[in-house]
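Journal club side-thread
Mid-discussion, someone asked how the predicted structure for our own chain would compare to the paper's figures. Pasting it here so we can look after the session.
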Amino acid sequence: MTPAVLHVVFTPSGAGSLRVALEDAGRDDKVISLFDCLSFGPINPPDMSLRSKWVEHELGRTGWDDIDRDSDTFWREALSPGRRMVAWLSRRSAMEYAGFLEWLWRMGDSPSEVIDLSEVTISRPPVLAMGLGMVSADTICRKKLWDLAEPLQATARQRYRDLWQRLRSENAPLRVIEGGELVSAPISFFDTRLMSYVTNDWQKVAMVIGQTLVAEMDDEVLQVGDFVLAARIDAMVQSGRLEIQGKSALEMHDSIVRLPQ
């Protein structure tokens, strides 16, 4: 009997697109998603309580431990034996890349297949797939992207393990894409780019963050989420580098910022 296919995805948006595509194709494969984002916060050990405390302290966001239950379910299924495992990622997405590396670390030597979308174009004019969540269900289905699955070779597996071992030992606040690779970065990594979009005039925080995210995508990478950038704006307000009107940059549509006058 052919083992049931389990698609392992590292973003909820990517999992949603893939589920719709598989359903449209009449396939009954199962899709699971990691909800935690391992491109930021402590990863050694990857303890959810430690990560939740870090997120609250560094990013000002509470309730991160609410995803603990979903993470437990994901890891239980993602490491279960007797299934054909197919992991989806783009190495242009820090979240997908980090999640994939942790999954592979936990998998050990168990056989697995990978669909690497890093050099796959998804539209005309050609646009690279910076993450599964950016690929529409129609495109996934029409291109039959599941046919790109290839067994993970021993040399690639070891290279990924070595990379994650280094990142785990560094245990930096952030992990970002540089030169096509995932590297450790300080919590202030995005500050300069954020500051470049702040002016002497009041602007909504959402505008500053949106421009920063678009600039990252112009570099053909998905580096960070909006709430991490909002937390950095709050940190720069506290240090006197920015002025804010509003309770917090985390309320990005209701707060405005400018350079100090």
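Post-session note: Residues 21 and 137 are 5 Å apart (CA to CA).
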